[in-house]
Amino acid sequence: MGTQLTDKTFVFSGHSTPDHSEPYSPDAVTQRYESMAERAGIDTHLHALRHFSATELLTTGIDAAPSQAASATAQAARRR
């Protein structure tokens, strides 16, 4: 796509930064998800994806504990 990836490149970035140097805001992701769900006629919220993913991991026999630990670590870091 013509973008040079570096350790400062964000995978999920907005259109206002075509060089991917700024991340999407969490609100933007939530709003896009809510809009998509509404258009699809699905009554859901973004947090439900976390539970869905964990359930899918468990049903395939993958231990969800590492992702739970990573998520807890990320949440703790955001609170600081």
Features:
mainly alpha; 2 domains; extended; 54% helix; 80 residues; 3 helices
Summed up, what is this model?
With 80 residues, the chain is mainly α. The chain has 3 helices and no strands. Helices cover 54% and strands 0% of the residues.
The helix-and-strand class reads mainly alpha
Number of helices: 3
Q: From the alpha-carbon coordinates, what is the Rg to the nearest angstrom?
A: 16 Å
Largest sheet properties: none
Extract low-pLDDT stretches. none
Q: What level of helicity do the residues show?
A: 40-55%
Global outline: extended
End-to-end C-alpha gap: 36 Å
Q: Determine the mean pLDDT.
A: 79
Instruction: Please indicate the percent range of residues in DSSP E strands (runs of 2 or more).
Output: under 5%
Total individual domains: 2
Count of DSSP E strands? 0
Order of helices and strands: HHH
